[in-house]
Amino acid sequence: MQTPGSQSSLHRANLERVVRAVRLAGSLTQAEIARSTGLSAATVSNIVRELKDGGTVEVQDTSSGGRRARSVSLSGDAGIVIGVDFGHTHLRVAVGNLAHQVLAEESAPMDVDASWADGFDRAEVLVGQLIAGIGVGLEKVIGVGLGVPGPIDVESGTLGSTAILPGWAGINPRQELSQRLGVPVYVDNDANLGALGELVWGSGRGVKDLAYIKVASGVGAGLVINGQIYRGPGGTAGEIGHITLDESGPVCRCGNRGCLETFAAARYVLPLLQGTHGPELTMERVVELAREGDPGCRRVIADVGRHVGSGVANLCNVLNPSRVVLGGSLAEAGELVLAPIRESVGRYAIPSAARQLSVLTGSLGSRAEVLGALALVLSEMGDSTLLADSQSPKLLPSVR
Predict the structure, then answer these.
(1) DSSP state, 249?
(2) CA 313, CA 350: separation in Å to the nearest integer?
(3) DSSP reduced 3-state for 175
(4) What angle is formed at CA 107 by the lines to CA 103 and CA 113, rounded to 5 degrees?
(5) How many helices (H) and strands (E) does the chain have?
(6) Most Cβ neighbours (<10 Å): which of 35, 88, 204, 335?
(7) What average pLDDT does the structure give for the chain?
(8) Residue pair 211/319 in contact by the 8 Å Cβ criterion
(9) Torsion angle (degrees, nearest 10) of CA 330, 335, 336, 342
(10) Is 110 helix (H, G, I), strand (E, B) or coil?
(11) Considering Cα of 84, then 253, then 155, then 172, what sign does the dihedral take?
């Protein structure tokens, strides 16, 4: 038994601090581990040696700042994590290891709104196919990250909004998928997972305060404060799409008038162009036509950018993020939408907040949410699952 404050409990705590730092970053040099954990270089060196001997981490020679260094990452045999992303029109699944390497990935078109049961059935099949394809079984799965396009009630774990996914209201996504796969499941909304994905793998790397704005069939934001997703006490933080822009504007699906979503989301924007461009027009096609020079599509995208910029300006004034990352289908418009966003931010945000803000598109595209689902597992799993005991760390065979 380890007594609090004893040498053995302190050693165990240091082991877990090092494992956590490496797990969250993917890979770090020993010098970076020392800075991240506050441990001395000698202590880090001894712990890394112990973890390497136990099979928990792998060490490779690298360079940092032109000098020789040793890069530490979790062992590729330490287990796998799975990401599942339900969009309104697709299902996407990815498999990765604890060294932040994506091992397999696949997506399929799907009307997620139609049937939650069919959605989870297809997710179960796709997960089975992917892990079989890389030659592993469910016993190697440490956890599954699950993304859904709607707010999750923190207390009940259910989808509470009947307006966003009417057929899913009252469903507990975590329980449904966990029962099918028999492994721990962590769930969050798609905007939060997009923020996590860009934070770990994409345009948010290197910053601790950012907002990921997803503009697609709806408008939402994932907020990162001091390196952590901020969800709020009820799990609804980041619903930027329901900031009021015009009290006498169109009625939103939430019941209010003139929400940002009614000026920016695809379901409200596409009718503006379908009269001249046909009823089958999609937001992806609007962006494509705008990039080719179509004046109507360019005007609509610029207008959307200015409206989104008003919402971003509100975020700047309240939270003062250092970076805003634009995701969703609209992000493919690049500077055609970024320039109007920046214009509105410059007009409506506090000048000091606007000066500190960079606005750019996400680098992960449609993969942001599923990679964020992988990152969710990597951030939520416990470090003790990777350590058998403080004297001789080794991998547990399963955490099911």
Answers:
(1) S
(2) 8
(3) helix
(4) 140
(5) 14, 13
(6) 204
(7) 87
(8) yes
(9) 90
(10) coil
(11) negative
How far apart (Å, rounded) are the C-alpha atoms in residues 114 and 288? 28
pLDDT at position 75 is 80
d(CA 56, CA 25): 15
Spell out the residues 6+ positions from residue 272 whose beta carbon is closer than 8 angstroms to its own: 300
- Of residues 189, 180, 181, 190, the one with CA closest to residue 157: 189
Nearest CA to 284 out of 263, 259, 301 is that of 301
Q: At what angle do helices 335-348 and 295-319 cross, to 10 degrees?
A: 40
Q: What proportion of the chain, given as a percentage, has pLDDT over 90?
A: 58
DSSP notation for 289-316: HHHHT-HHHHHHHHHHHHHHHHHHHHHH
Other CB atoms closer than 10 Å to residue 215's CB: what's the count? 30
Residues 190 and 151: their CA atoms lie apart, in Å, by 9
The pTM of this model reads 0.83
Give the burial string for 365-388 (b: 16+ CB within 10 Å, else e).
ebbbbbbbbbbbbbbebebebbbe
Residue 43 has, within 13 A of its CA and on its CB side, a CA count of: 16
Q: Return the closest-CA partner of residue 362 out of 394, 323, 398, 392.
A: 323
Say if strands 80-86 and 141-148 run parallel, antiparallel, or are unpaired: parallel
Alpha helices in 233-294 (DSSP H): 261-264, 266-269, 271-277, 283-292
For residue 118 the two structure tokens come to: 């069919």
Give the pLDDT of residue 164.
61
Question: In which residue are the tokens 């929400």 written?
Answer: 259
Alpha-carbon torsion 205, 207, 209, 212, what sign? negative
Q: How far apart are CA 317 and CA 337, in angstroms?
A: 21
- DSSP SS3 for 222: strand
Closest CA to 202 of 380, 342, 72, 366: 366
Where helices occur in 142-257 by DSSP H, the ranges are 173-181, 190-201
Closest CA to 147 of 108, 194, 113, 105: 194
| Predicted confidence (pLDDT) at residue 25 exceeds the cutoff of 90 | no
Question: What are the residues facing 62 on neighbouring strands?
Answer: 69
